[in-house]
Amino acid sequence: MTKPNFTPDAHSMKMEISKLKKQLAKADEYAAELEVKKDALQKSLDECASKLAVKNTSSKESLENCTEKLLKLSENLAKANQTITALESETDKREKVLKRKIEAERFKKEEFVRWVDTLIEEQKELREQRFRAFGNEEYLIFFDNGEDYPDSMVAPVVMSADKFRELHYARAQLAETNEKLAVLEKTDSIFSSGANFDFDDLTSYFPEELDKFAKDQQIKALEFILGRVESVTVSHAVKDHIVHRIKQLRKGNSDA
């Protein structure tokens, strides 16, 4: 029995080879497309890596800058706290000094008041003596220099020129002390209004307050303030401004 012949013929072989060639060609095209995609993907990956590297570098620099700024801020904050503490301490010292001065002025005022009261009592006693001696008649006040001055008091007083001058001097001293005490108390209230008073802010703070005083009181207050800031580290512009204001006020008084 003969075996069947399965050997393909030449035409079938050619057809099969042609199909294989087409498949190989498609495979090559697909491989080429994959290669292109691979290159594009690699390029994209390289770009991403480059951008990430730049961002990473920038982030590190930003972090370093932030860290440096935070350190600087901490230093400035520490210095500011030291300055605030020093200012509070200085303000407390100056408030104590000012209060002592005010107490001293009050004591002087009380002494003057007692002195004037004593003189007034002496004057009243003299009036009573004259009234008892001469009744309701009108007399002259006679001074040691020999000049006579008419007086219309019910009970005229005869006193020496020294006693008269002493009385008027005491009254003038009392008036001056009252003015000075008023300025000191006003200044004390201004300085006590803020615990952290800034002496460099005098040019913008005090004019508004001082305008409420009379000119002579403004001059006294500014001279007092100038004496205070002389012992404090403030700009020359502040001191010059205060001196200029004093000169202006004095010129205004002389013009008036």
Principal-axes shape call: rod-shaped
Order of strands across the widest beta sheet? 1-2
Secondary-structure element pattern, one letter each: HEEHHHH
Structural class of the secondary elements? Answer: mainly alpha
Gap between N and C termini, in Å? 158 Å
Residue-averaged pLDDT: 71
Secondary structure tally, helices: 5
Largest sheet properties: 2 strands, antiparallel
Number of DSSP strand runs:
2
Strand content: under 5%
Radius of gyration: 51 Å
Oligomer: single chain
- The share of residues in helices is over 70%
Low-confidence region ranges? 135-156, 194-205
Keywords: Coiled coil
Coiled coil: 17-90
Note down, in words, how this protein is organized.
There is one protein chain. The chain has 256 residues and is mainly α. 79% of the residues lie in helices and 2% in strands. Strands 1-2 form a two-stranded antiparallel sheet. Strand 1 and strand 2 form a beta hairpin. Helix 1 runs antiparallel to helix 2 (161-192), helix 2 (161-192) packs across helix 4 and helix 4 packs antiparallel against helix 5 (236-255). It is rod-shaped, with a radius of gyration of 51 Å. Mean pLDDT is 71; it is low at 135-156 and 194-205. Keywords: Coiled coil.
Offer a concise description of the structure:
Residues 17-90 form a coiled coil. The chain is an all-alpha fold and 256 residues long.
